[in-house]
Design brief:
Antioxidant, Horf6, Chain A, domain 2, alpha+beta, Glutaredoxin, 2 domains
Length: 222
Amino acid sequence: MPSLRLGSIAPDFPAETTAGSINFHEWIGDSWAILFSHPGDFTPVCTTELGEVARRADDFAKRNVKVIGISANGLDDHKAWVQDINEYGAKYGPTKVEFPIIADADRRISTLYDMLDEQDATNRDDKGLPFTIRTVFVIDPKKVIRLTISYPASTGRNFDEVLRVIDSLQLGDKHRVTTPVNWKKGDDVIVHPAVKNDEAKQLFPQVTFHKQPYLRTTPLTE
C-alpha cells in the first residue's frame, strides 16, 4: 500500500458510525474534513479530546469543516463512551458530542490510513491487533490530504493548532499568500514566492519589501 502524503487523495471507505453508515468521500461532500483517530474508548486522554471537539463545534462549522472521529472499538462501546464524554465535558461548559465516531474494532480503516504504532511482536492488544495512535488528517473538499499530525498515545492534541492550520490553508487557497511562523488569523501574511514584485504591488497595496528579496509581507483583511 503506497504511503499517504500531503497532496495524496484521502482513501475512500465505507464505515459504520455512531451517526449511521457512511461512505467517507460522500460524507465529506463539498466541505473540509478532519479525521482524527483514538487509541481506544473509555481512555482518559481521548475523553478530554472528544469533549473539546464537541464544545468547538461552532468553530469548525464556520470554517466549513466536518469532524469525524475513529476509535478501535465497536459501536456499542462508542455510544456508551459518548455519555461519559458529555458528562465529563460539562465541567468545562455544555458538551454534546454530535459528530460521528467510526467503529474500527478490526483496525481496517486505521490500517488503510496507517494510524498505527510501530509494529513488533509485543505491540499488540489482548486480541493480537495492533495499537493505534492519535493521528489528525485535514482533508479539503477535493479530498486531498492537506495536513497530517501524529501524536503519541500519551499526549492530547491541541485543536487550537489544528484550527490555526485550517485558517492558513483556507487563506492560502483564496489568496496568493503563505503564513509565517506562529501566524494566527489577523496577522500579516507572506506574499507567495510565485508572485512577481510588480504584481505583488497590485494585489497587495500595503506590501512591505524586506531586505531579503524573497520575503514580502502584507496585512490581509477578510
